[in-house]
Amino acid sequence: MGWFVGYYQGSRNPEQKLSVETRCSGQRFRWLSSGNAIKTYKYNVLTFLPLNLYEQFKRAANLYFLALLILQIIPDISTLPWYTTLIPLVVVLGITAIKDLVDDLARHRMDKEINNRKCEVLLDGRFQESKWRNIEVGDVVRLKKNDFIPADILLLSSSNPNSLCYVETAELDGETNLKFKMGLRVTDERLQEERQLAEFDALIECEEPNNRLDKFMGTMLWQRERYPLDLDNMLLRGCKVRNTEECHGLVIFAGADTKIMRNGGKTRFKRTKIDELMNYMVYTIFVLLILVAAGLAIGHTFWYEEIGSKAWYLYDAKGQDASYRGFLSFWGYIIVLNTMVPISLYVSVEVIRLGQSKFINWDLQMYFAEKDTPAKARTTTLNEQLGQIEYIFSDKTGTLTQNIMAFKKCTIAGRSYGPVDWSWNRHADRKFQFMDHSLVACVRSRKDKDATEFFKLLSLCHTVMVEHKDGDLVYQAASPDEGALVTAARNFGYVFLSRTQDTITIKEMDQESTYEMLALLDFNSDRKRMSIILKFPDGRIRLYCKGADTVIYERLSPNSRHKETTQDALDIFANETLRTLCLCYKDISTDEFEAWSRKHKDAQVAMSDRDAALDRVYEEIENNLMLIGATAIEDKLQDGVPETIAKLAKADIKIWVLTGDKKETAENIGYSCSLLSDDMQIHYGEDKLRIRQANRRNEPSTFRPGKKKPAEPFFTEPGKNALIITGGWLVSSIQVQCCFIFYFPSAKWWLVLICSIFIFSERDSIDFVNMACECEAVICCRVTPKQKANVVSLVKKYKKAVTLSIGDGANDVNMIKTADIGVGISGQEGMQAVMSSDYAFAQFCYLQRLLLVHGRWSYIRMCKFLRFFFFKNFAFTLVHFWYSFFSGYSSQVAYEDWFITLYNLCYSSLPVLLVGLLDQDVNDKLSLKFPKLYLPGQQGTLFNYRNFFISLFHGIFVSLIIFFIPYGAFLQTMGQDGEAPSDYQSFAVVTASSLIFTVNLQISLDTSYWTFVNCFAVLGSIAIYFGIMFDIHSAGIHVLFPSAFTFTGVASNALRQPYLWLTIILTVGISLLPVICIQFLHKTIWPSVGDKVQRNRKKYEMEEEEKKKPSAFQRGQRSRRSAYAFSHSRGYADLISSGRSIRRRPPARGGPQDSIREVPQREAENI
Question: What cofactor does its activity depend on (predicted)?
Fold first, then answer.
């Protein structure tokens, strides 16, 4: 890991550049700041055309058509005018280039606006206005209220007490709530005036520029003292100063080195299964094109030897032999048949995906009015994948639940208290509910020492910020759990009032007390606990600790009482779906604390692995704890969660819950949200896997990687199975720490390598996945964010399944990025999950509409579009193939040149495009009522190689009919006027007209949902064809461009013959008749689920809704326990201990709802 080392002294001279040193691997390098100007645009006036074309021609399809265009320029090869390929290619390239240009112009404007913003910089001993682009590393800047922060800045001082500064980070992480930042105490006291800032000199040593928004590590050496720096001392670029009149800071990272710019890199590109399949099909078409062209070239070689060379009227005086002519014919047919590889396919697919994304954004039934949050498709490339989901991986807290906590029960010294009139306490929160008056009486009497310590701990051991607003207390907590606990203490008479860096003040039953805070040991997801060390007014030193029962019980003193009774209470609380937390304390002697404090200070300024060093020091003091009791908090389910899970299960979607909570908590929530039911057999995965591994060890090893072996089922009993497994087993099975020691005799030095090795063997991985996939429901508890992603990866790897991950917090980001589709919920834990997701909305219940409606529609539309797109191109192109048998395989085209050019652009594109955008087999209500309609997407039955070859053979059949019926009608024919219309040009008009009618009527037969737009597109395409054809066959345009328009008068001459119209009608009829018959037989004899629903659609739509039934879930059916009430987020400990008292903030959001809203539960009819 590298470190930036900078030395700052005094104000900067405008012409002087600050020199910064980089220390990496023990060496020192000079580094010059590149300035603060940013550049996000890709092109300028000179580079736009070459760079954009270069990027577009990196796509294989565009490069292929460019090669065709080059071939068409060669006279000996070209069988089509160059414009037949150039015009479609230019249209495709032009549309893409215009889109790229519009995007880049917007980036140009944004860069210019940002780089020219103004800021006050300390120059020549005084603050002067300067543009952002001129700011450099080492400058001291002054920011005022509502200013955007121009660079990553070390906060030195502010106008607020103790240099506290409020920032809004909406542009950084999407969160609108204010964050607290603060300067060091030493800089706050000594760097308030201009003169002091101009004389400021310090050595700043910090990490090298990186993209981690949640971490910063460094030290400041000033006046021979070292001071630790972390993220709470930093103002990051992209944030906005709020509620702070003025602040000063030192620029640490500028321009492209800032964290927000480092996060501007590309995310992992996700592709759908249809994308991959479509690419393989294009490659298949290309292979078919080569084979067909080669076969026709060989045919031309033999034809020329046998016939062509002997026909005097075909003599061209070129002197070319048959083989060479066959070679030229090969390239000629590559040009003629190039429309088998559709140039407009990818552009059309992107248009359809963009439209489908807009439909998701505009869906009012996925709009959450309470937070004014609509659904948002953050990508346009994955819509059809939503219709193929097989596995859903969901977080629990904040995703299935509301993450709004309410203090419900507690146990103190072995006695449990459950849910009072709070009129006796004027500081009480009126929204707080608790129903056990005996606890209130016990607390008010002050006779129960344990009850006093219990609520004193809740009011002191936390990282909550407080402000006094209009005579009321407003708390800002790092997690909803912590806010609920402090509010509970407040209602019981232990009111948290204020805090400074060194003290915390509470009111104990109307008596105000101030405690000296010696240390604050903050929570993180590894520790699962937090502690505070306080010095009481009487001189005693005490540590208060609260955390998950698994970590607290490991650290309890052997003399601690009430362990068993508290354990029993935890089981009872868990049976009621409550989240639990254990409270304990420890008295510390002065000598013990002073010895520990010295280690703590050393760890705080460690330059490497600071977090690990602090954790080791924390472990030394957090032992021999005395248990006080435990709290129980209710986290209510979101509205509609049980119904959503039940409906997704009927769609054969497997739902796995991956949570950091304890096994019993997760299991209990599984019952309450209908993921688990009483008719399921619950299995604990560790036992099953240990048995399987033991059996394997006792058997001879026959497993070979890559060699398939019949899998032995884990569950042989009939019935439904559910699996519950803990992350602890996954840790022991997946990863192990290893140490390797190497000695180099020649150099006489040792190398010690410590690393993590994954030993989760392939057999164990397959066992875990197979066992889990045999179950209807899976719950993985006590899993870390990394383990969540590992579980998703295993299912993707071994089941080749389409996966979706859904979560609401920063701990879910890894899982969301790993899955094929990531969904973020904008909940109580910020916007990190949303910022990393592909789709975002506010409630879990919207997931059923996203998948069963939008996902299914998108999949059906895309499959129908692709099938028809391939069919119409095969039917169009293969007419040339049949014509070649009658033209000596000479690469002669069967159509007019302009028809070939405009076929995919004007004559057949709009109807199929609208089917891809608007078609639906049943409406949204029936899609939700019949989840079984989702199955074809999971099975991939609507678009695969079978469908591709069906489209191929359908195209071959139609092309055969379109060629040979007009050919037979033209053979030895005489017109009404005695003229012979059986010429090549009239034949081309008749075949082209038959093709246009056939493909447009065929898409009409395949359209399930008719609108005025669809009807207009079909009739309009036919009208456009005839309008353009009569124009380009007119004498006027032939006079202007005689060489380009050679079919003068052909259309008017041919189409005035009645028998040619009869020929067109006969051709179209025979082409469509088999399709009509097959569709009729399928819908009547072998109807699908969708066909059955469509047949009774009106009946279902007219049905009256059944009376809504309340949820059948009842508490207390099974004995389960829960624990671990912390969210996966860091608290405000660093802010407090470095510290500043809190200024006023806007009022906090209202409390939780009174009860869970009962949601109607209605089962759809199974077909």
Answer: Mg(2+)
Q: Is the pLDDT of residue 660 over 80?
A: no
Q: Is 811 annotated as a binding residue?
A: yes
Cα distance between residue 95 and residue 105, in whole Å? 16
- Examine the residue annotation and report whether 363 is marked as an active-site residue of this protein: no
pLDDT of residue 265: 52
- Residue 852 banded pLDDT, cuts 50, 70, 90: very high
* Residue 517 sits in the same domain as residue 450: yes
- Give the separation between CA 282 and CA 288, rounded to whole angstroms: 10
Q: In the predicted model, is pLDDT for residue 642 greater than 80?
A: yes
Predicted pLDDT at 267: 52
Q: Looking at 184-198, 420-434, 987-1001, 1042-1056, which range is the least confident one?
A: 420-434
Residue 1035 lies in a domain: no
Consult the annotation and say whether 1007 binds a ligand: no
Of 244 and 763, which is predicted with more confidence? 244
Identified catalytic residue from 188, 395, 767, 921? 395
Task: Look up the CATH number of the domain holding residue 489.
Answer: 3.40.1110.10
Contact between 614 and 593 (Cβ < 8 Å): no
Distance CA 603, CA 460 (A): 24
Two structure tokens written together for 399: 């995703």
Average pLDDT over residues 650-663: 84
Tell me the pTM.
0.75
- For residue 397, say whether it is annotated as part of any ligand binding site: yes
788 is in an annotated binding site: yes
886 is in an annotated binding site: no
- Comparing C-alpha atoms, which of 787, 865, 806, 547 is closest to residue 655? 806
Phi, psi of 393 (to 5 degrees): -110, 115
> Which domain range does residue 450 map to?
405-421+434-637
Q: What is the CATH number of the domain that holds 394?
A: 3.40.50.1000
Cα separation, 834 vs 841, whole angstroms: 8
**Does 579 show up as a binding residue in the annotation?**
yes
782 annotated as ligand-binding? yes
Count of domains for the chain: 3
Q: What integer best gives the mean pLDDT of the chain?
A: 79
Question: What's the residue count for the chain?
Answer: 1167
Asked whether residue 536 is assigned to any structural domain, the reply reads yes
Of 264, 297, 316, which residue constitutes the final position of a domain? Answer: 264
310 domain-assigned? no
- Asked if the model's pLDDT at residue 1123 lies above 60, the reply is no
> Does 677 lie in the same domain as 591?
no
Question: Which domain CATH number covers 192?
Answer: 2.70.150.10
- Name the domain boundary from 818, 837, 856: 837
Percent of the chain at pLDDT exceeding 90: 20
Side-chain half-sphere exposure of 800, counting CA atoms within 13 A: 3
Residue 1092 lies in a domain: no
By the 8 A CB rule, do 527 and 611 touch? no
Among 276-290, 650-664, 1020-1034, 1093-1107, the minimum mean pLDDT is found in 1093-1107
